[in-house]
Fold each of these.
Amino acid sequence: MTKKFLLYSAPFFFLFAALSLFEPWLYRNVFSSTSIDRLGGKEFQIIAHKGASGLAPENTMAAFGKALELGVDQIELDVRHTLDEEIVVFHDQTLDRIAKDTLGNRITGDIHDYTLAEVKQFDVGSHFDSKFADQRIPTLKEALDSINGRCKVLIEIKHMDHPHYHDFAEKLVEIVMAEENGEDWIILQSYEPKYLDEVHDLDSLIQTKALIIGEDSAPLVAFYIETRMHMGRAKEGNRMRAINPDWETLSPRRVFQMHAQGFEVHAYPVNTRDDMIKMLNAGVDGIITDFPDVAIDLRTELSNLE
């Protein structure tokens, strides 16, 4: 009886597993709607990814200025260390993708192999457009001073197994606390729980968010394991108010589960109007995007439907 049951039920278990794995894909490509009929008046957070990085070079003062000009709710940026252990705003471990010298030659190597004085000479804007050739890598303090609480700032702590990063969390906390009311408008996020734990050990008032890996870059159960690990850690200390998953790992059911645990859900990076509508119909609370202008226009459109 048992063997027969297992034999006959096995296809259903495999089907269930397959549906669970491909649930977000099925939602995006089969069941989701790009209609805004049910979204009239919906409020959602607009978070500029690396600043307005679809409109200006990523993680530069130009991108942050454009995001502020548009009136976003939050600006997301990334931080790394230089050789002399200064915290700068930069996404990649290496400089290869976007940095050039004054002659237009590509700069190569890890950013933590250069001093602050050296990286300040690099052009990180002309790869986007020649009119941004004056853009340089800002320090975190320079970026925060320029934003100055005009919107919230979401700082992503990049993971690095390097000696320079031994006191990274401590330095971040010092910079946040040096800003006027910094604990109110600056939020730290990371894929690495240890950074968030260290931050809360140093200052329990600083807000944090968890980044969750996507199924396209991890084994089948990774999304579920990571979700439950971060949620469990958050509930233990009541420390995380929101979770920021890759938008391609989300479906209405998964968003509902996160809401049921008491978290807001901010999806990233969502860059087209149709995809933003799909995520809003799935129930997310915020959109992290390279094109905040598109999200601003959409929110205005929804407010006019009330």
Note: Confidence is low (pLDDT under 50) at residues 214-226, 232-238.
Amino acid sequence: MLLKEIESFLEEDLGPDDYGGIVPYTDCKAEITAKEEGVLAGLEEAKQIFDYFSVHHSSEFETGDRIKSGDIILTVKGPSAKILKAERLVLNFLGQMSGVATLTNVLVNEARKVNEHVKVAGTRKTTPGFRKYEKKAIAIGGGDPHRFRLYETVILKDNHIKLMELEPAIKKAKEQVSFTRKIEVEVESIDDALRAAELKVDIIMLDNMTPAEIKECVRLLTERGLRDGLILEASGGIKMGNLKDFASTGVDVVSIGMITHSARSLNFSLNVVE
């Protein structure tokens, strides 16, 4: 985490008056405890925030560890006023990132019950200002973070195609984009998927299609010799209840926005013990 990020987060959380003078600067010891089971993420960020305040910290856990209710994740020692200034920001990082990592891990395990090679990916449906941490948490949970920013992969989505039509949009992308960047096309029908494959795009996103439609699309692409070297991504309406249906269609990736926009924060608490 960059210094300016820590200070920006603290400015947002503390504001101009953090009740200075009420809490003494006497040394104390506090423990951060997990209140439920999950996958631990945000530990490095928590340590960096305590480092900013020159608060000593120690932990027997590492990022990505499975944790259970009652586990002491971090022990901190230092001026009580500084520990309490850091408390909410630290707990927010641990809670949100662990929540994303835990949900990702559950979804990955569910998908690989039917397809051991499928990737479970996030999307750009992230919290503004917190994307890199949510994406990091996805990776900690065993998922694929997908692209971080718009420029990293050219994705021709439904609105691009409405404005330009499929073939002209792909042609223009191929003319203007470096060979080092992949071109992905979002389609909502089998016919458009076949056309995009014939035009040699790198990735086809099968968006809002049913598992049965996707399975038929994979069959036709294979039958016509268009499947090799082509990455197929299923997206749209995928959740825990239907994840295995999509993962078993033969796609390479299932991307799920709920990993970030609907992950429930894991519960942690900080308590002064000495």
Note: The chain has a mean pLDDT of 93.
Amino acid sequence: MQNLKVIYEDNHIIVVEKPVNIPSQGDKTGDVDMLTIIKTYLKEKYNKPGNVYLGLIHRLDRPVGGVMVFAKTSKSAGRLSEQVREKIFRKTYLVIVNGRMEKRSGILEDYLLKNERNNMSKVVKEGTKNSKLAILDYEELKYNEETNLSLLKVNLHTGRHHQIRVQFSSRNHSIYGDQKYGGRGHGKQICLWAYELTIKHPITKKEMTFKSIPEVNGSWKIIEGVEL
């Protein structure tokens, strides 16, 4: 059984750190996924017979690690899903990209089109059929001249398919270790981490922020000395 890192838990929600390379939910690979891991944890912890309810509110791409929230009741699931739709649900990522951004902070806006066949997205002209507007803002936290890599903090305004990966790679700042979108560091783990999540508690309505920081090793050594 996968070791589960629980960041917060009450009767309504459970917030955990998703390890890299584990799917958010079951897929065709049949590999163990976060939903199954957490359900098993709840079953064992509370000695529950039968099926355990667990609501998936949002996903992280398989190679991406970091903070995720799951609902323990259908009422909480409904309210959290509504927050995703109403943009109350806020996600911040840490990203290591190739080179240095022209501006230390900024907003990126693009229209993205997903190709279902190869499960990739690309930047297209506004008005392209089936394209969707993608918006994010970023801030440079550190630049390493020696490696020519930048550590960025990224806030998603929209949740498009592979959004961060596509928007930065289209500007020749692909994410380090991103095999799909031409990142340097071939064979390395993608340097994209779900670092912070802000929600309103589905029952108490209190605003809550949860954080998860990647282990400071390998490419992530760049975060040493950075105030997060």
Note: The chain has one domain: 5-222.
